[in-house]
Every structure is written in structure tokens, then in C-alpha cells.
Amino acid sequence: MPKKNIASSGIKVNICIGCKAVAFNDKHIIDLIRQTAEHFGTRKAQINIAVLGDEQIAGINRRFLDKDGVTDVISFDVSDDRSEEKFFDIAVNAQMAKRQAKSLAHTAEAELALYILHGLLHNFSFDDATVRQAAKMHREEDDILKKFGFGVVYDAEKR
């Protein structure tokens, strides 16, 4: 699987492409990740993004979360509590992003960016377990995505 790595400001981002269903500008996505991490006070991190397909993410879902089926994003904070450096692993489903984008009339790259951002925000203590938490998280996602030129992607009224 091809890997792309860009380090900036102590934040190292690795993207591993296991599914090529969605073409994306890796530099733009890495900038989104890095600037979001910095916005939430992270100065030193290694953030790994795996761009996967349905079958691969279903396997992770089953193995680590004991859930059957596909999902959009799975994120893990594997940081050591005793260290200032953060370590995040985020798996996103490119095939689902492509399907969702088509049904919601925006680009697959924007949907994939949403999944990556959603996983990242979970690692910064955002949650979507309640209606109120989800609304707050989705507003934050859309605010960030607008700043990076993707527009309003989650758009609660469409989903």
C-alpha cells in the first residue's frame, strides 16, 4: 500500500492507501489534519490514516469493536498518558465515502475529509452518543470543513 508522510510543527501524518475508490489531494487532507490538531492544542503527534474499503473496515470493526458490518470511520487514541505526544490511528472507508457523496450531492473527497475529521475529533474528546453531543460535533466538523474549502459536508438536514 502506498504511504504518504508529511511532518510539520511536530505533527507527523501518515496516509496509507488500501482502497483507491476516492481520489484526494493528500497535501490538502494532511493540512486539514495538522491544523485541526494544532487548533486543539496538539504540538507533537503521529497521526496515521488508513484509507480502506468495505471489507477491510468491516474486519477492523469486528476485530477491535466486536461489531459486524461496515462503518464510515474507526479511530483509536493509542497515546501514552504519561507522554505529551499523541498517537492516533484512524481508519476511513473510501467506498462508503464514494456512495454517500453521490447520494448527498457533494464530492467523495469532501465526504472522506469528513470521515477523517470525525475520527480526529473523537480523539480530541468529541462524542456523538447523544443528540446534543452529535449536533455539537457535526457543527464543529462543518465549520472546519468550510474553512478548508469543502463546504458544509455533514449537513444534518440532508442525513
Descriptive overview:
By secondary structure, the chain is α/β, with parallel strands linked by helices. It has a single domain (3-147), classed as 3-Layer(aba) Sandwich (Collagenase (Catalytic Domain)). The protein contains 5 helices and 5 strands. A 5-stranded mixed sheet has the order 1-2-3-5-4. A hairpin with an 8-residue loop joins strand 4 (73-77) and strand 5. The longest helix is centred in the C-terminal third of the chain and has 17 residues, at 131-147. It is globular, with a radius of gyration of 15 Å. The mean pLDDT is 93.
Largest sheet: 5 strands, mixed
CATH topology: Collagenase (Catalytic Domain)
Structural class: alpha/beta
Q: Could you list the spans in which at least 5 consecutive residues all have pLDDT below 50?
A: none
**Span between termini:** 32 Å
Which descriptors apply to this entry?
44% helix; Collagenase (Catalytic Domain); 5-stranded mixed sheet; globular; single chain; alpha/beta; 159 residues; 5 helices; 5 strands
List the helices and strands and how they pair.
Elements: E1 3-8, E2 11-17, H1 26-39, E3 45-52, H2 54-65, E4 73-77, E5 86-93, H3 94-104, H4 108-123, H5 131-147
Parallel strand pairs: 2-3, 3-5
Antiparallel strand pairs: 1-2, 4-5
